[in-house]
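Hi all, long-time lurker, first post. I run a small reading group and we've been trying to get comfortable going from sequence to structure in the token notation. Rather than ask abstract questions, I figured I'd post a concrete chain and ask someone more experienced to write out its structure so we can walk through it together at our next meeting. Sequence below, copied exactly:
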Amino acid sequence: MNQRVNELDWASRSLVVACLFGITACGASDRGKTEPETIPGVHMAELSNDFTKVYLSSSDKSQIAVVDAREFGTDHSPEALLQRAYVVSRDSGEVDVIDLRTLELVGKRSDYAIRELINVGTHPTHMSLSPRGDLLAVMDEEEGSGAVSFIDTNADIELKRLPGFYTPHFLRYAAGGAYGYVANIGANHLTRVDLATLEIDAHIPLDGFEGPPNYTSAPDESGFGDAQIDSTGVLYAAHAATGRVLVYDTLTRTKRTEISVGARPWIAFAEHPFKNVPLRHLVPNFGDRTVSIINGENAKVVASLPGDEEAYGVNFSSMTPSKAFVMNRVRKDVAVVDTSTGEITTRIPVGGNTETAATTADGRWVIAAVSGANSVVVIDVMTNSVVKTFKNVGKYPWSVTIPMGQNYCH
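-- Answer (accepted) --
Happy to help. Here is the structure in token form:
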């Protein structure tokens, strides 16, 4: 990683963290494949009062490690810290630190440069940071646990471990910060959490599964993988078993409708930070290898495209608002979709299987982890081409997180 690049005009305030997630953290993945099983997730408290923290979750330990980023340099200002990248390897127990101004390796710290350990559930995986950066929700996917831990990022303590979920997979924060919505990948309903009291406030069931005692589990994790909220406050949650997308208004807290998409849909990608991107939400359907495009203005499917049996990720960009970039794991490419016409315009080969990516805050680059090749690629959204490849970034890099950009995992 100690290599320079001159052809890219990187934003000086970009902090990129390459997150590594074990494939067993995501219930829809094929457990028969050879990916590592106990690799931690990463999240940053970059919007909190403390710009120096990086949080690591381990899928095989009941702890969250807090990295003190100040250990890697003498300049402790937020601006300086936001110019660094942290690449985490579970197998080596190390953090590589990259200076994004020069793209040179500037430091290495074993054991994650741990500042403190925060005890959480038995199988912590995905994490969600609140818009203000003061609250970190950690999903505990251990079977039989069904809990979400809430961490105060200012004090680095667990405020509460809230039970009552069915393999919670993601938590998304509604505008205003009053409520969080948890996708239960092991059930047929979403769960709403009152963030003031940290109590379960309501359940939002799929049609046909209303009310107790019908809040039932979904076998083989065939429930909701995520519940993303678009720029208008409308939530979209794909339900794998039924092939439906639940549409819910988080502003009025009312259910709108349900939309039929393809077979075994994964996630309705509706949440990103770009204000000028049209309301076109893409849904990869693993069962029939298609990608559905939902028009968010009328909640209708407007196109169905050829997809991939494991198209895990979709990225958007403010610089090319009518484009969507679909990560195709089996095809080992990124499909570029024109969301205005509903057509695939080109495919970008990336040299291996890719599941997830992040878009930089300015919309200029899509940065994708190419897991099987142990590399990370940088895609120019204007030219639809790979302009830089970082090799040997660690064993099976799983996802990339960029503060203020578009981020997700699976």
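A couple of things your group might point at:
The mean pLDDT is 80.
The helical segments are 78-81.
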